[in-house]
Amino acid sequence: MTDPAAIGAAYEASCLAELDALKPGNVHAFAAGHRMAVADFVISAKVSTPHLARAGARVGARVRSAMAATLAAVGQNTNLGILLLCAPLARAAEAGGDVAATLTDVLDTFDGQDAVDVYAAIRMANPGGLGTAARHDVTDEAAPPALRTAMTEAASRDAIAHAYGTGFAALFEIGLPALAAARAAGLTEPWTTTAVFIAYLGRVPDSHVARKHGLARAEALRDEAVALRDLDLATQPIDALLAKDAAWKAAGLNPGTSADFTVATLFLDRLRD
Prior knowledge:
Order of helices and strands: HHHHHHHHHHHHHH
Structural class: mainly alpha
Low-confidence stretches: 129-137
Distance between the termini: 8 Å
Number of domains: 2
Mean pLDDT: 92
Protein name: Triphosphoribosyl-dephospho-CoA synthase
InterPro entries: CitG
Helix content: 55-70%
Number of helices: 14
């Protein structure tokens, strides 16, 4: 898929499909939460699409302009993680060929402006629980280091940063296999999307939860998510999932990073098709 319009359509469709799925603790069509509504995310998807899919744009420029458009439209950070994951995928798709192979080239060829723009986007978004770092802190407006270097140093505390250093391995090792398994089991949307979300949440401590509540709480949440894998999604267990959704939201737990990876998985799947 090399047509920017088609890439944009795939991105927006993936954002909207993720919202349709019941994802415990996160914002979705079944229930709002965390002082955010589904409409905020729908608008964010719409206004960020032309920037995310802008023909010829580098990754940093896509992330920065899409983040600015989102903040102007909804006044809050709804999609920084999504943009950080999907912008490299969009650029790789535009280059043509196998997305996985081209993605490696994209991640290996960031330039200084990519770093400047990504750091600026993160500062604009001001994600919850970001904190500070001894080296390469995003609040430092001096010339940032190479983007891949900074992401590698942050990998131990952030799953999206870790993805930049591993060629987005989680998408290929967790997301796409979970999506394929859900389809093979006869599930259709939005339950295939719920399956992908649960797969991420049950495999990797959610970075957003860890930043705000500590790694121990994120690990405990992962253990709770493992139990959700025993649910038969073919029966559409809405009540059971909504009960967990309400409990996590009451505790202020928002597994937003798992949701970001879910969007990226759906986007990658559409690009490969």
